[in-house]
Design brief:
Layout: H1 2-46, H2 50-59, H3 69-80, E1 84-86, E2 93-95, H4 96-121, H5 124-145, H6 152-168, H7 171-190
Antiparallel strand pairs: 1-2
C-alpha cells in the first residue's frame, strides 16, 4: 500500500519538475532571442564586429567562475586521475578527460564563432532559427547514438521544428507557383 501512495505522489511532483524544465527552457530561448535583437541593434549602431562581441560575451563572465573554484579544482583532480590517452598524429600523452575537454572547447569555439559571424550577416530571428535547428540535429544525433527511444513526443517536436522552419523560410509560397506549373504541364497530355 505504501508503494502505491508513493507512486501517486511522485506523478504530480515529476510533472511539476517537467513544467519547471519547460519554463526554464522557454525563458532561456526568449532571453537568447532578446540578446540577438540587442546584438542586432548594437551592430547597426557601432558596426559589425563579431570577434569583439565574442570576446566580451565570454570574457566578462569569467570572474563569476571564481565562485565555483573549489568545484573546478575537484574536477581538475578527477581529470588528472583518468586513464592516459595518446593523441593521434601529435603523439602527446595526457589524461583522456583533458583530451575530451579540449575537443569540446575546440568544437564549441568553432560553433559559437560561426554563430557570432552569422549574427553580423542575418537577422536575429534567422540566427535563432539556425541555432534551434542545430540543437535539434544534436538531439536527434544523441538519440540515435545512445539508442534512446524515439517517442511520440519526439515526433511531435520534430513536426513543430520542420513546420516552423518551412513557415519561416516561406517554402509554401514558392511551392504554389511550382505546383501550378506542374499542373499546367500535365493538362495538355491528359487532353
Amino acid at each position: 500500500a505504501s508503494d502505491s501512495s508513493l507512486n501517486r505522489e511522485d506523478g504530480p511532483q515529476a510533472f511539476l519538475w517537467w513544467l519547471l524544465g519547460i519554463a526554464a527552457l522557454t525563458f532561456a530561448l526568449l532571453m537568447s532571442a532578446r540578446m540577438g535583437i540587442f546584438q542586432e541593434m548594437l551592430y547597426q549602431k557601432f558596426g559589425k564586429h563579431s570577434k569583439e562581441a565574442l570576446f566580451y560575451n565570454h570574457a566578462l563572465p569569467l570572474p563569476g567562475f571564481l565562485l565555483l573554484a573549489p568545484n573546478i579544482y575537484q574536477h581538475a583532480v578527477l581529470f588528472n586521475q583518468s586513464e592516459l590517452f595518446q593523441v593521434p598524429l601529435i603523439g602527446l600523452t595526457l589524461p583522456v578527460m583533458w583530451f575530451y575537454l579540449l575537443m569540446n572547447v575546440i568544437t564549441q569555439y568553432v560553433c559559437i564563432r560561426g554563430v557570432f559571424i552569422l549574427t553580423t550577416e542575418c537577422t536575429s530571428l534567422t540566427v535563432t532559427l539556425v541555432v534551434t535547428l542545430r540543437k535539434f540535429v544534436s538531439l536527434i544525433f544523441s538519440i540515435l547514438y545512445f539508442q534512446n527511444p524515439f517517442t511520440g513526443w519526439h515526433w511531435l517536436g520534430t513536426a513543430f521544428v520542420f513546420v516552423g522552419t518551412l513557415m519561416y523560410t516561406e517554402v509554401w509560397n514558392s511551392l504554389g507557383p511550382f505546383l501550378a506549373r506542374c499542373r499546367r504541364r500535365r493538362r495538355p497530355k491528359e487532353e
